[in-house]
Amino acid sequence: MIQFTETVLRDANQSLIATRMPLSEMEPVLSKLNKAGYYSLECWGGATFDSCLRYLDEDPWERLRKIRAACPDTKLQMLLRGQNLLGYRHYPDDVVRLFVRKSVENGIDIIRIFDALNDIENMKVAVDETLKCGAHASGAICYTVSPIHSLEGFVRFAEEMEALGVQSICVKDMAGLLSPKEGEELVRALKQTVKVPIVIHTHSTTGLGYMTLLKCVEAGADVIDTALSSFSGGTSQPATETMLYTLKEYGYETRVDPALCMEINEYFKKYRDECLSDGTLNPVVMGTQTDVLHYQIPGGMLSNLVAQLTAQNKLDKLDEVLEETPRVRKDLGYPPLVTPMSQMVGAQAAVNVILGERYQSVSTEIKNYIRGEYGKAPGKISEELIKKVLGDEKPIQGRFADTLEPAFEKAKKELGDKAHCDEDVLSYIAFPEQAEAFFEKREMRKNNTFKYRIARID
Ligand code: CO
C-alpha cells in the first residue's frame, strides 16, 4: 500500500503562490478532499500561519478548526520547525509545548518536525509534547548535499529520531536535489535500519521529483507527498494524479480515488487560472530549473542572490559570489541550505565578494549562529572565523533554549484583553506585529457590527 499526503493546501500553496490561498478558496472542496482517500492533508504550519495574519486577515487557528470540521475522516498534518516553531528564532520550552498542545487540540493529527541544522536537540521537546498529546510525531531529515553529509549520517539521524519515539521518518528534500539514485539508496538503507514508515517529500524544481518518487517507492517508501496537478510541478510537488496513475500501472495498491481527484482538480484549475491572471502565480516558478543541480544550491537561494546583486548594481559579481558561497558554507560547518541558513550564507558570500575582504563585515545572524543560538553546526565551524567573530567569548554549550526564560505567561499579561484565548497569545508570541495588527482589525470589525445593529434597531 502506497499512501499519499496531499500538499495543495500548504506546501503547493506556499511554493507557487506565496501562501496566499485564503480559506474561502479551500472551503468548497474540503468535503471532497476529506473523502478522496489521502493518508493526510498537509494544511497548516510553515508559512500558512504568518500569511493568515499578515496578508489574509484570517485567524490561523480558526482556519485549522474549520478545516478540521470539514474533514473529519482524514488526518490533518502540519509542518513544525522544532524549537523554532514556525519562525527562525528559538522559543523557550513552555511556548513550544503549549503551541504543540494547542495545535493538536485545534485539530492537528500529524506533526512533521524538523530542524534546519538536523540538530536533534532542537526537536526533542516538540516530539515529546506531540507524543504526550497523543498525536503522530513525524521526524524529518533535512536532505542536503555536502562533503560531510552522507547516507550513513542520515540513517544514523533517523535512528536517533526513532529512539525519541517518532512514528514515521520523512526525507525532506526542500530544494528538489534528491536524485532518483540517491533517493533509492537512502530509502533502502532507511528501510533496513528503522521500523517506522518512510515518507518522501520533494519538490519538482529540478525536474528530478517524479523519477525520485518512483524510485523511492520501488525501494520501499510508504508515503509520498504530492500536489493536485493544477498546483503541482516547478517549485511545488509532483502531481498527485500522475503518481497515482503510474503506481497503479505498476500494481501498487493505493487508497486515493482518481475520480474525486479529477473533480477537486477541476475546482483548483479555475483558482489557478485566477492566480495566473492577477499575478499571484508567476509562471516562471512552474518551470524546471536545472542550474540548481550544477550549483547544488536551492532555486530560491539563487534567485535571492541575483536579486541582491542586481539591487546593488553588482550582478557582474555573480560568478564570484557563486564560488564564494560553498566556501562560506564550509567555514560555517556545512549547514543545510534551508531558510534561514540559505539567506544567511548567500548574503555573507555576497558581502565577502563586494567588500573584497572575507568577513570584514559579518551579519548579526551569522554571529548568533557561530555563538550557537541556532543549534549545533553539522560540521566544524572554522576556528579562525570563531575567533574573529566571538573574540574571547565562548560559544553556547548545549541547547540555546535552556538559556531562555519561560515566555507564555509574560506575553499573556502584556496582551491583556487584546487576547481572547491562549491561541491568540501564541499567535502573538510567534508573530507579534502581525498578530497585534490582526487583533486590532478584529476589534474594529466587532465594533462596526455592533454599531450597525444599533442603527438598525433605531
Ligand atoms: Co517542501
Name its key features.
alpha/beta, TIM Barrel, Cyclin A, domain 1, 3 domains, 8-stranded parallel barrel, 20 helices, 8 strands, disordered C terminus
What are the SSEs and their pairings?
Elements: E1 3-6, H1 11-17, H2 23-35, E2 40-45, H3 48-56, H4 60-70, E3 75-80, H5 93-105, E4 110-113, H6 124-132, E5 136-142, H7 151-164, E6 168-172, H8 180-193, E7 198-201, H9 209-218, E8 223-226, H10 240-249, H11 258-277, H12 291-295, H13 299-311, H14 318-331, H15 341-355, H16 364-371, H17 383-390, H18 408-415, H19 422-430, H20 432-457
Parallel strand pairs: 1-2, 1-8, 2-3, 3-4, 4-5, 5-6, 6-7, 7-8
Task: Describe the fold and architecture.
There is one protein chain. The chain has helices spanning 11-17, 23-35, 48-56, 60-70, 93-105, 124-132, 151-164, 180-193, 209-218, 240-249, 258-277, 291-295, 299-311, 318-331, 341-355, 364-371, 383-390, 408-415, 422-430, 432-457, and strands at residues 3-6, 40-45, 75-80, 110-113, 136-142, 168-172, 198-201, 223-226. The chain is α/β, with parallel strands linked by helices and 458 residues long. It has 3 domains: 3-278, TIM Barrel; 284-402, Conserved carboxylase domain (Cyclin A, domain 1); 408-457. The longest helix has 26 residues, at 432-457. The chain is globular, with a radius of gyration of 22 Å. The structure holds cobalt (II) ion (CO). The site of cobalt (II) ion has 4 residues, from loops.
